[in-house]
Amino acid sequence: MQIQExxxxxxxxxxxLSVQFDKHLNILYGENGSGKTNxxxxxxxxxxxxxxxxxxxxxxxxxxxxxxRIEGIIQNKYKNTYRxxxxxxxxxxxxxxxxxxxxxxxxxKINIVLxxxxxxxxxxxxxxxxxKYLNIAISQLHVDYLKLLGDYNKLLKIRNAxxxxxxxxxxxxxxxxxxLTEKLVDLGMEIYEQRRTYIEQMNGFIxxxxxxxxxxxxxxxxxxxxxxxxxxxxxxxxxxxxxxRDLLLGKTNIGIHHxxxxxxxxxxDLKDFGSEGQQKNAVISWKFSEISMLKENKGITPIxxxxxxxSELDLEKIKNILKFIEEDIQTFITTTExxxxxxxxxxxxxxxxxxxxxxxxxxI
Length: 364
Ligand SMILES: Nc1ncnc2c1ncn2[C@@H]1O[C@H](COP(=O)(O)OP(=O)(O)OP(=O)(O)O)[C@@H](O)[C@H]1O
Ligand SMILES: [Mg+2]
Fold this sequence. Notes:
about 375 residues, alpha/beta, Rossmann fold, Glutathione S-transferase Yfyf (Class Pi), Chain A, domain 2, 2 domains, six-stranded antiparallel sheet, six-stranded mixed sheet, 12 helices, binds adenosine-5'-triphosphate, binds magnesium ion
């Protein structure tokens, strides 16, 4: 899968842009604040209709204007034009000439694997941030996953509201709560299974990739869930045991909404124990594993974006990472240190763009 052409209107610090990318490797370089991350963010928004940063859509609209448009020609099996328009009122998406009313029917079409330095949050931050990353990764592989998750979250809200009502009224129907609990467990078990399988498959790749980058083996990802190794019956008993606490607190205290995972290196948690560089290599290994999983499971070659690749990493690791960039994957790399990067790409062909204040100049 490749993005052949990208057109922007009023996106972040870009007024108007029209650019044709290389099929294989594209290097974007420029000073801090010039618009490198903004550009790759626009590609991400084109694919997923929202940013990888936890921001409101409106911030994507260039200051002083009221609409941003991102348009891209994507070459996959077929060639299609994708378009996302964001205004203060909301967003609209189109594939070729067809308006798509359900965003969920749009988002699974363009596959992107992106690394941004912010992704270290995957290790450093809270379980809920980690779940977000996992959810996005799984949804790229399984189209129905987000709907399943949406159904679970809806039901969780209903159950929590009902718990509060029961606590206040005292006489609400226990049998209705039982119905909600059983349905919640059924959906929770499906999500648990998808997450468990995903992380298991991830471990089939990530250890080797991390070793090839760093020379150290024994990195793996451990999934942590209250559903672990429990049958439906076990789970229903567990919810039953927690009923008093659920009622007192007015919320469901057990479930996959508490799931977490950790990156273990030689059995130590990288969160507390790893250096910035080790954490970055682990997250990049995760991203390359995502690519392998997309290829293996769906025959999809996603677009790979490595934002600010060089920072925090020593030359040896960067060289090893660049070895993973295969000919058949369209790749974008951004950097402030162009000489350093190009000195590592001597036998490779690439297009090079200089980013200056929201303008892209191809450098030949
Ligand atoms: N909505 C917006 N309208 C106009 N300018 C914006 C908007 N949002 C962000 N910017 C500008 O975009 C610039 C940041 O761009 P970006 O994050 O792409 O930089 P970068 O080239 O990736 O820099 P670094 O090397 O530091 O990562 C800032 O100068 C910011 O003021
Ligand atoms: Mg940046």
